[in-house]
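Cytokinin riboside 5'-monophosphate phosphoribohydrolase
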Amino acid sequence: MSERVTDDGVAQRGAGYRKGPVLLRGTQIPDQTTDQRLLAGPQDTDWLHNDPWRVMRIQSEFVEGFGALAEVGPAVSVFGSARTPRDHPDYAAAVQVGRDLVDAGYAVITGGGPGIMEAANKGAHEAGGLSVGLGIELPFEQGMNEYVNLGVNFRYFFARKTMFVKYAQGFIVMPGGFGTFDELFEALTLVQTHKVTGFPVALVGVDFWQGLLDWLHGPVLDRGMVSAADPDLLHLTDDPTEAVKYVLERGAELAAVERAAQAASADAPTEG
């Protein structure tokens, strides 16, 4: 049974708590997450001995993630709120996104939880495609939804985020909260700073996202905090099928540009 989030934002503990591959329930649930312990300031000199060993655990998460996802093939990451109920139009739109991506030959990657994540995984699963969930250790574990057919659980957010970017050719972002905003802006930052090859980002839900785009095109751009082209990294639509079409077509264009640049670089004469 997947854990659900109530109207007041409090999660149910029924599914237990995942700590890497370990499932804990009841009194075994820890007070702190692995991320909290990693990022906490040192209280005594024990950190000199403990933190270097954490590197091995972090390394293992990358190794496990790379190994599990290496053969996923073309994929798109879908983000959105864990709180979206199943009878909400956003849930239906995310199901359509998952279905359309699989019909186009792509795997679907989500955070593996309830709400929008479950919906996108459901669409992918029902279409007969690869439905990937990348879970995370949280104080109130949400659990992997039933539509995931390839799931990987992570202790560390940064390891999980790497997998979202590394194995996806684009992002489709549904309405969501802080977690969704975090994933969206991290992706935009990586593209803007050229830390990754450019990839498309589509936002679904005009009434939800339009205010963000107005803010980016207005005060943020007016103060010179972004360049004129930066807000155009986002494509806004109400149509989930259009979002999928944009991500796939724009992704193909960007891939062609990257191949041409690599070919030109390879053909350029070397000095000396």
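thats it. Residues 63-262 form a domain with the Rossmann fold fold (CATH 3.40.50.450). The two ends are 66 Å apart (CA to CA). bye
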